[in-house]
Amino acid sequence: MKQKQKILLIFMLLLWCNTIISFANNNYDNHYKVRIGLKYASGAKNNYSVNIEQVQLNQNSIPVIHSNRNANRVELGFVYLSRSYSTEWEAKQSSSESFVCYYKDTYFNATLSKKGNLSVPVVLVKQNDSILFAFDPKKDITLSSSNNKFKIEKKEYRGELELLSNNSSLTAINYIGLQDYLYGVLPKEISPEWELDALKAQAICSRNFTVTNMGKFKKYGFDLDTTTTSQVYGGIAAEHQRTNRAVDETEGEIGYYQGEIASLFFHSESGGQTESSENIWGMKKPYLIGVSDSFSNNGSYANWTYSISKSKLEGILSRSGQSVGKIKNISIDEKTENGRAKKITIYGTSGTRSFTKESFRRLIGTTTIKSMYFNFADTTPSLRPSSNDLDNIFADLSNLLNKKSSSPILLPSESIQVSSSDPIIIVGHGFGHGVGMSQFGANAMAKKGKNYKEIISYYFKGVNVQ
């Protein structure tokens, strides 16, 4: 009997522990920490101007060095380590000629030195020319302030500053809570003046994007960067009261598909039809399928045109190593089931080039070719009647011949002949890859009384916000 009671007790303890762990792992509020790369790779330097009030050094979120002074510079340097101590206080009291260095979990007296066999690389934390302390630049060691804010290169951020040594430079990372991070993301991704439920829907998408892309920049020592490669992040200067409110009022909420965290992509405007993820990235998701989107028919980018000369396109192809000589013809060979160009071929005097998915858009520029939801415009259409009915034939001819406008008649075409004088005109709809939530559409839905959960479920079939 006692044996059964022991087994039951062990089972209950394991169940309780699993519940606690599950709760901790699904706590997507400000306790969930993210590493954002501020300066890395070619953008990294060996020193930075900073402003960190009453700077403190932490290891695994535990304070290891305290200071009542403000730091205004951090730089990569070399020091000679002398005697070691078990506490910060002992190291500080031991000598007035040296400073404290926290290196490999130990406190040392340190003095500046040049690079050599007896020196070690460290980060020097300074106030003007005075060294406050030094530390081993490795992961999980951060600099924090008394007000949970810091500046680096005159830009202010919430959270803490992490510095990782990369040979001769320092990768600068913002170690920050998820909520604080989203404060700096939302106003860079969507207009703060839009409807609150549209902002809340964006908060859900951005929170999901963050969680599902953790470790994307693992090789650099952080999770996400500050650009469109991840999500645009502007720090404290970007924050807005209305977007902060949207983040606060959706705190901890995540979109799930059948119990799994969903990848919730978003774009500016669909132009009336969203796209399936497999047609853009080859990644098939049941909730990332194209939907008819009448809410995105009247936004700023619902309809657009772009004109490019033959010579300019030939130059772009040549500079990218994809020259076809003199361009003769361009055709859309394949479209997705949602109407976007999937394969485009350019025919020239010295060869042909085919571009699939988003590659044609990237070739010319993603802000000029706003989406792949387009046709080429035929500026010299033949006079083909729309029916065999004699009355309609005469009506069509009359309408065409009596055109008052001097502008060319633009008819959609999937293949055009290219002359030396006429520009190549592209007539398109929407802005962005078209997958997931249309931001303009979300705002239009909110204006019609839809709440943020309804917006999410409209663009992501089967996704529930919890």
Automatic annotation (TrEMBL):
Pfam families: SpoIID (PF08486). One of its GO terms (cellular component) is outer membrane-bounded periplasmic space. Residues 167-257 form the Sporulation stage II protein D amidase enhancer LytB N-terminal domain. One of its GO terms (biological process) is sporulation resulting in formation of a cellular spore. Residues 1-24 form the signal peptide. InterPro entries: Bact_Sporulation_Assoc (IPR051922), SpoIID/LytB (IPR013486), SpoIID/LytB_N (IPR013693). The keyword Metal-binding does not apply. It comes from Filifactor alocis (strain ATCC 35896 / CCUG 47790 / D40 B5). This is SpoIID/LytB domain protein. Keywords: Signal.
